[in-house]
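Quick log. Single chain, no ligands specified.
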Amino acid sequence: MSAVADLHWLGAHGNPALIADVAVAFGALRAAIVGARTNVSFDLASLTSAGEDLAEVRNGHPQLWGLVLEFDAALTQIDAITTGLDGRVAPTLETE
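-> predicted structure:
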């Protein structure tokens, strides 16, 4: 997730000819974070099958629960950044 800031910087200040590469890297990073978030969330949710409710799971595993929130924040940040890159990556009539 720390790569988000580096990619953001490259998208804003790097060689403009590399903007498509930055967008592809953001796509790959987003996919990796979604996969990791899904795995951790599923594992936390599966703990409820042992009788715990989600509040107990959250209280019993605060680091993992916090990691899901970090994943969510990173995805929100990636989406905001890539929305700003779209016009430079794939110009359309609407971006003129």
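The mean pLDDT is 90.
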